[in-house]
Amino acid sequence: MKRIFFAAFAALASLCPASANPPPLAVIYVRAGHLIEPTNGRVLDDRLIKVIDGRVAAVEPWHEPPQGAKLIDWSEKWVLPGLIDAHVHLADYLQTSNPAEPLLHSAEETAYLGARNARATLLAGFTAVHDVGSYRGTGNIELRNAINRGDVVGPRINAVGGYITVPGGGGEVTGLPSGMIVPPEMRMGVAANPAEVHRAVNLMLDKGANSIKLIVTGAVLTEGTEPGQIELSGPAVFAAVETAKARGSWVTSHAHGASGIHSAILAGSRGIEHASLIDAAGIAIAKAQGAYLVMDVYNGDYIAEVGRRDGWSASILRKNDETTEAQRQGFAKAVRANVRLVFGTDAGIFPHGLQARQFAYMVRYGMTPMQAIQSATSVAAEFLGWADQVGSLTPGHWGDMVALNANPLADVRALEHVEQVMKGGRIVQ
Questions:
Q1: What does DSSP assign to residue 269?
Q2: How distant is the alpha carbon of residue 182 from its chain centre?
Q3: Among 367, 377, 353, which Cα is nearest to 412's?
Q4: Does an H or E element contain 348, and which?
Q5: Distance of CA 188 to the CA centre of its chain
Q6: Which of 69, 94, 142, 216 has its CA 20 to 30 A from that of 26?
């Protein structure tokens, strides 16, 4: 009986040779005129990058690749790893003057907007992002899944799902006309105490979130909240951190005010988003705890200009004025203290695809161009827990890279004009 079975199996295998042999490896070569490697801050001239099945296999001094090999000639360009924006909101509409805006778009429309935003972000050279919240709780999770399936063109996404926020807090839709109801899918993360935070974190992780976003203080753009006011207590943050940790995940915290920053870091939050009103003690705590600060130092100018032009509320404009310059001075102090600073822009408040405008602000407030590039590559990858996957063009990392016509180390604004983008060994622009 065994002989009959093996004979039949051998006959079947002879009819289906493809099933017995793995597909050939996809191999491409990239000639980089000037390769910026952020992990060591070096610039390597005239390099040959070998990419196999989407990942970097070797980086060598230029030599002719094998005859007939596919070669991408970037010999006249500056090449660096794909950029990472660690604070975006892809699966939503742009900020407007109408506080009811989140309720005016269907789930279907929002999904199409997310696809458009993802494409714009990728074409601007950002091959990975941290999507830190969508009003429809699973919007960014489903967008990530669509990109991973190949249905939508976009960056790699670390998605948090919806915001974990107190009732009426900075992650809620507030300031609505009387009688207008916020639907349940926009309140998935509302939690009033540590027990409810535990539940909400588990819900987001069950829905497929990679990590968790807490709203620890009030927000500039949420009516009825104040940036300096603590909303989620230290015990609530600790409950979120421990719940996420038990499931192999982690937490970052929206916190503008100094007290909220202290509380969130000491409770175990890996990152602080905005950190607008950070003080000397907050910088020292971040340094001591190894926390990451994600400070959107470009965004305030956009809000001030467009908000006044388009009639955003006086409250929002006031809060923006109170936090913008303070945040930039705090950023400069954090640079001098050598705190871990991550590139994150809050894109979605301003149009997606314009994120690289922030690099010039980071340099203006104390970073070198190389430090700014590292904040959006190797440091951002560390923050996301993806240091072995992205943020570098050393062997084993994804073949995510961008090519520029000008040297960003001489003028960091060159990053605003990405010439070509590769994600996973494939040219997307």
A1: -
A2: 27
A3: 367
A4: none
A5: 21
A6: 142
Extended strands (E) in 204-350: 212-215, 251-255, 271-274, 292-294, 340-342
pLDDT tens, residue by residue, 29-57: 999 999 999 999 999 999 999 999 999 99
- Residue 103 sits at φ, ψ, to 5 deg, of -90, -5
Domain ranges, residue 157: 83-384
* Residue 10 confidence (pLDDT): 42
DSSP state of 347: B
Structure tokens at 417: 């004009």
Question: Which residues are within 8 A (CB) of 148 and not within 5 positions of it... i.e. 6 or more apart?
Answer: none
User: Is beta strand 418-423 parallel, antiparallel or unpaired with respect to 401-404?
Assistant: antiparallel
CA distance 111 to 117: 10
CA–CA separation, 82 and 218 (whole Å): 33
| Predicted local confidence at residue 11, as pLDDT | 39
Same domain, residue pair 233 and 370:
yes
Could you tell me if 273 and 380 lie in one domain?
Answer: yes
Which pTM was predicted?
0.93
The residue written with tokens 């935070």 in the block is 197
Distance between the two ends of the chain, CA-based, in angstroms? 58
In a domain, 6, yes or no: no
DSSP-H helix ranges across 76-193: 107-123, 139-149
- How far does CA 2 lie from the centroid of its chain? 56
Q: How many CB atoms lie within 10 A of CB 306?
A: 17
As a whole number of angstroms, the distance between CA 126 and CA 381 comes to: 12
SS (H, E, C) 306-336: HHHHHCCCHHHHHHHHHHHHHHHHHHHHHHH
Co-location of 379 and 397 in the same domain:
no
Residue ranges of the chain with per-residue pLDDT less than 50: 1-20
Minimal CA–CA distance to 63: which of 53, 51, 49, 74? Answer: 49
Compute the Cα dihedral for 181, 187, 193, 199 and give only its sign: positive
What's the token pair of residue 184?
A: 């349940």
Query: Helix, strand or coil for residue 300?
Result: helix
